[in-house]
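Title: Request for sanity check on Sugar ABC transporter ATP-binding protein prediction

Description:
We are preparing a figure and want to confirm that the structure record we downloaded matches what your pipeline produces today. Could someone re-run it with the sequence below and paste the raw structure tokens into this thread? We only need the token string, no images.
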Amino acid sequence: MSHPALRARAVSKRFGPVNALSDVDFILEAGEVHALLGVNGAGKSTFIKILSGVYQRDAGSIEVDGQAIDCRNPKDAIRHGIATVQQHPELVGDFTGYENIFLGREAQRPGLLSRIDRAGLARRAASFLARFPVEIDLTRKVAEMSAVEREIVAILQALAGDHIRILILDEPTSTLTEVEKKLLFKLIDTLRAGGIAVLYITHRLEEVLEIADRLSVFRGGKLVATMPVADVKQQNLSLATLMLGQALDNVFPAKRDGAAIGAEVLKVSRLSSAGKFETISFSVNKGEIVGIFGLVGSGVDELAKTLFGANPASSGEMMVSGRSIRPASPKEALQSGIFLVPGDRRVEGLALAENAIFNITLANPDRAAGFAGFLRRRSNRRASTEFATRLALSPPNLSMAVSGFSGGNQQKIVVAKGLFADAEVYIIVEPTVGVDIGARAKLYGLMRELARSAGVIVISSDCDEVHGLADRSFALYKGRQIGVPSAEITRDGLLLAGIMGECRHV
């Protein structure tokens, strides 16, 4: 009798008064790609952390190939054949690809004086890579690799132990372009054909229909549905409705009409940064959202950082509410009324070891502190609580270190930080990376709310997001501005501008 690759029975987990998981029964078959869906805080992250040995279950049992296992730490999980690639893989940037793949198992024979045979490691890595339908140069440093190359190195690192039977992928495409995503999916198809079971966690619902065999939906700490993806397609079911438990009529809020547009708050004229982008010109008015679509490498991230003073401009002009500015640092940009919500929240947006209140109030020291620099603790907590409620932060524990929140909830804290800043211009980069469909709608609504009293710029590699949210939009392609901000450009026209550099209002 054959057993499933993994079986969980009545798995439960509590964090104080919060019931994170309740009696979860789950089966993962060998050689299948199984998607886990759920809004932030639904329980799926807790479940995979139990499987990977980060958390210990309070009740229930877990079996791998019919054998009961007990994972007290990630090393135990790997020993039992379960490997995890986190949303932000912990790779060593100064090491080569092959050095990262065999990190911790470099020596053929263990011992204090064992020497690392780097040439041998490179040959082993090349032989290992040859099993898969991808081609990357593993002799390059990871810091020099593209996002998809780093993801592949992380997967190869996870699979370097030949006994791995179950691979958990947490938001593997969150920073990938469409072309890069297809390369990753080829690798996943090869793993599936080789009998490896893949647990696939994503908030990009269209990917589920493209890559998964089955899906399971978590809601409120419970597993509420499991079904084949083929049935979802045949019955034309809404994944968003399954996740939320109710229909979501419209993700994007209504756009402003012309009468609601106020005075100009930001004007950018022929702004350039040597080697990154050139002659960018646009304006933003109070009451509107201007969208900028661009893929990785198009210059959008560099543009955002130049507007925020973190990247030097080589030429051009900027004006905020009629005042000429040239911010030489983020501090000067903040003083000029510009706030940036960065795309990489973990590295650029948050102090992970500090709590939510500290992070939310960090962007506006004048508001956070009163006479002689003493913190306004009560008012800071009150404001933070208000923002956390509006954003449906889960769990609503403002005293918890930010590192303990899921990726989507970390993103909510960064947005709350922007709300506390009370700026004239908000630049919001990749606003919904790792954020579920329900929270996404709430974030979009808050951006529209921000635009009532400020100018908002949304920069994203998701064309549908830019087109659906922005009142006017344009694209960047290889550092060049394609077209002028327009309300008339169609979704397909914007996509063509961003991926081909062609300006067509189609």
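Thanks, this matches our download. The mean pLDDT is 88.
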